[in-house]
Every structure is written in C-alpha cells, then in structure tokens.
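User: ok so my PI wants both of these folded by tonight, can you help

Assistant: No problem, let's get them done. Here's the first:
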Amino acid sequence: MSPDILIRQAHGCDFSAVLQLWQHAGVTPPSNSDSIAGLTRLMDSAGSVLLVATVNGRIVGSVIGDWDGWRGNIYRLAVAPEYCRRGIARCLVKEVSRALFDKGAERIGALVEREHSWVVQFWESLGELGYRLDPQFVRYIADRKND
C-alpha cells in the first residue's frame, strides 16, 4: 500500500463522502440505512467501527465493523474503482479485524456477494488474516417496513 494512504476512524463530517463512495464503487445492495441518519445511528453504537482510507484527504475506501458482544461482522467494504488493486481493501480488513478483536469479538464474519467473483477471490486471498469460507450458512433477511 502506498504511504500516502491513511486508514482512520470516520467522523460525522465524513458520512456524505462515504455514501458517495458506496455509490461510486457500486456497493450493493443499497438499503434504507444508506443515509447520514443511518450512519449516525450505526456510529452511536458502542460496538460499531467505520474506517475510511484516504488519499490526500479524499475518502477512497471504507469498511464497517460491528460487534454484538460476542461476534464481529464486516459490512460495506468498498474501494473507489480507480484505487483498486493497491492493497487498500486488505488494509481496511486488517484494521477493522484488529478493532473488532480488540473489542472482544471471538469470531468475525463477512457478508460477501457470491455473484461477484472478484469479491469472492479477494476474500479467498485473506487466509493469512485467518479468513476462510464457512459453507454452513445461508443468509435470510427482513427489512423494516415503511408504513
């Protein structure tokens, strides 16, 4: 990774740029929580971490880590397309993993879109960080109803 890339904790003033990054990077699936209010709620949780990667002050990568008191989860790993293949995602995963283990997580899981082969290949390459495929689970979700 280039020395001009900085990984740091995100702040409220970064939320708009993070949302723009997600749109630019094509992070899916977009949800109702992809908002400044959603990020604010997330960061108000003691178990949550939002890290950003910056180059010359510009946010070019992000990752969310969350710890529920037992297990950690990684969400929304994104890197701007023009900054891909520079080790940014790997550094973000390493740092968010460290933060979650420091909080007390015993295990960390990552949601990965299997339709995106390049994403699967990336996670397959993280064996040295301890990541491996867990073939036991299928994910089910429920969205909040907007009445």
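One down. Here's the second:
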Amino acid sequence: MNLYDEELPLEPEAERRAGYRERSLRFGPMIGAKKIGMTIYHLEVGLRIGPDHTEIGNEEWLIVLEGEPTVRTPDGEQRLVPGDVAVFSEGPEGAHSVSGPGRVVMMSTKIDPSASEYPDSNKIGIWPPNKLFRLDDAVDYFDGEA
C-alpha cells in the first residue's frame, strides 16, 4: 500500500465529534501487522486526532506526510513539517495531542492490555475491554470484595 494514494473514508456520522478528525484509515490489519498499529489521518485546520493523552504500556510515533500539524506535549506546542517524526514514549513525558492541518501517520506498539490517561478530563481508558473511567471514581482495593 502507498501512504499517499490511499483514500481516507469519512468517519460515520455517529463517530464524528466536533473538533476531532473526520477522515482516517486504520491500515495495520490491512497489511497483516500484528504487533504494530498504523493509522493515516487527514486533519483540516484545527481538527485534532484525539484528546491530549498519555500512553501506559505502549509507545506511539507520528510521521508527517503533508501539511504543518501542531503537536502539543508537556514541553509546549510545536509546528511540524513533512518528513518530521516524533515519538511519544510511555508515561507522562510522552503526553501528546496532534492537530491539523496535515496528513499524518500514527504508529503504535500493540501490547494488550494497555491504558491511556487523559489529563484534561481526568479519565483513564483500558484497552481491552475498551472502556473509560473517571479517576475521581476510584474505590478502595477491597471495595466490593467478600
């Protein structure tokens, strides 16, 4: 497959969120990948791939194909250009979000289970089972145990 030639389908209406991506293609499975996930995103000006987050258990890479997207990290915001590569390590130092304009590829290790923490909304996501929880809802270790 060619990263520049692939058509990126418009996300179904039910999956679209104001301010976030509208066109993407998860293609790791299409090329037989089992341990690395890859997705191409097309981002219009101001659209983001997703909320600011930290990976727990996986590492992500960003490769800029076209445009000049902006990356937000704990060090601030930085505009990138085609050919730039960024790595977002596991843990708080790898916190990030990406906004357009641009066509980018995100790659990630696929170690399950994993988690993502969302500092702006005080949530954590666990993958699998693909569920999100508010950190404020934490319970005692023995809560509900016999």
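The first strand starts at residue 23 and ends at 26. The mean pLDDT is 93. Good luck tonight!
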